[in-house]
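Q: Can someone sanity-check these two? First one:
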Amino acid sequence: MDRVSIVPVADRHSAREFLSYPYRLYKGHPYWVPPLVVAQRELFDARRHPFYRHGRIERFLAIRSSRVVGRIAAILDPRYSEFHGERAGFFGFFDVADDEAVVSALTGAACEWLRRMGAEVIRGPVNPTTNYDCGVLVDGFDSSPRIMMTYNHPYYGPLLEQAGLRKAMDLLSYDIDTATARNGRVDGLLARGAQDGLVVRPIRMAEYESEVLLAWEAYNAAWARNWGFVPLTREEFIHYSREMKPILVPSLALFAEMGGVLAGFAVAVPDINEALKHVGGRLFPFGLAKLLWHKRNIRHVRVVLLGVRPEYRATPTAASLYAQLIREARRLKYAGAECSWILEDNILMRRAIEGLGGVVTKTYRIYEV
């Protein structure tokens, strides 16, 4: 068998190869959802994407017999290292053929580059941080991922472990059937929150920018103690919110206030992946029409953000936000809601979801070396 060569992405041709490889690897796969090519391009545009104001990404391709057989990115995020007090590096955008030699070569190249940059611990995959889609799917391969979640072949995890990586943390996805969710529990949680003075309201779209900044402050405060978290800059959060705005349903973007102070917030969005599956990653010439057609049949939502300020974690804020999202999703005729991702050691959040009837349906894993 021919030798595997690892080459850095250094020109337009290799950049196109890096971008297009997953579309070839998963072509015709029944569960993989092709992301929009334009969105993927933007992730690697150092002039436009706010991550590059502080972070750096070095991309690599694995080549065998003149063909691309894998890709990986080495990621430096100084803000993470400063926040956690450790010299950390990351890898991400990892896609590969079922070949142990290729996986070892790719991870070896990324780790070598990161160690030259001073990293002492390396984790991944993150794309490019835990604030974006991340993890290797290790359980739950029999259905498509929800919006902003990943999918991969079952061999990814075993091959990474054979290459010397070990589990760092599992991330869980819970599904709640809105028709069979525990109605009494939903009503009881909302009543208890109201008794404690909690007011849950939808986002004020007329004041979108100021509401986003309010959520940004709460988000960074709420997640500050979570494993793997790195605070989003103001610019990153605004960028993220602008991408989300076109699919936002105001009644599924909730602010929980106690005594006029923001205690927490939650956002669920329609699972646009159910429509994107039919688009093939491109909006033109026919993709946009297909997207609009299939968008009418979206049956699920995903809770993409939920955060409660530390001083309010002993209150029913998180449970009330989940309960209100379930009630509203049911009213809007959505069949189910995915709550993802949840750290495996976040026992309080897991109990809140399980109390509403949530069941783990997918498990994602962050590895480290």
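And here is the second, same format, sequence then tokens:
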Amino acid sequence: MTDIVVLDALPMNPGDLDWAPLAALGNLRLYDHTATAEVPERITGADVVFTNKVRLDRAAFAAATRLRMVSVLATGYDVVDVGAAREHGVTACNVPGYSTPSTAQTAVALLLELAYRVGAHADAVRAGEWTHRNIWSFRDHPLVELAGKTLVIVGLGAIGGRVAQIGAALGMRVVAAQIPGRSGGGASSCPRVPLDEAFAIADVVSLHCPLTPLTREMVNAGRLALLKPTAFLVNTARGPLVDEAALADALHAGRLAGYAADVLGVEPPPPDNPLLHAPNCLITPHLAWASRESRQRLLDASVENLRAFLAGAPRNVVA
């Protein structure tokens, strides 16, 4: 029987999904969380490993002599050393596209919160401010109308494309920025401009590109200086796309109107992460992917990845 291990089961399924379809394909062992030091022991003897954020490096593949397949419970697969997987004859798969609606919705929710601070004003009302001020309307934060503003999308894939559609529906002018290391020039429903030029004209920048050596900290002090002081920056892609220290400095200095992100460079963040104490900064705990609908699609696709592999026709192969 196929020995199946899930290294970090809890984030995907806190109890509202059913593991039975996966369990039907073999002997299933579920671990809520797995520390780095626990990886070799837990995957020794496994035929198939599922992981979301637990890294599988060269040493892990060397320890798992029976391993035949790794399936990432996500679209991004940077947690897997794909070179080592190839060397050990292990098929590596991912799940593309499952979180597009939820992640796009989160990006727009973060942008709307920056623009109108609905949560902050609702908290003020709950705290009695509306009653105490004795005035029929008050605003503790600037209210920004998005219609007519320029939305720059960095990474016009499935999620970026969906955010572009929603931005256009809000009356925004949508522009696609050229990602470092890509030639670009493909078909697009909106104009494409060089990255620096895009930052200079942006009222909103929304990040949706993968993390690569060329995109790591591409939002650095130099590019932050190109942005208007009234601009918003939204990141639902990867935390390390941004130089967090430089971004915190820009927020403290008032050189950026606001930053909203669902991702950080280190997750969970250490207490000294500079963004945790920066003004006009909204951070959510990497939840964009995690609606029930999205997680169900992820589980279903992961089961199909294994079923296809066992049938000799693997799908969504990345290595």
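A (reply): Looked at the second one. The chain has a mean pLDDT of 96. The chain is about 35% helix and 15% strand.
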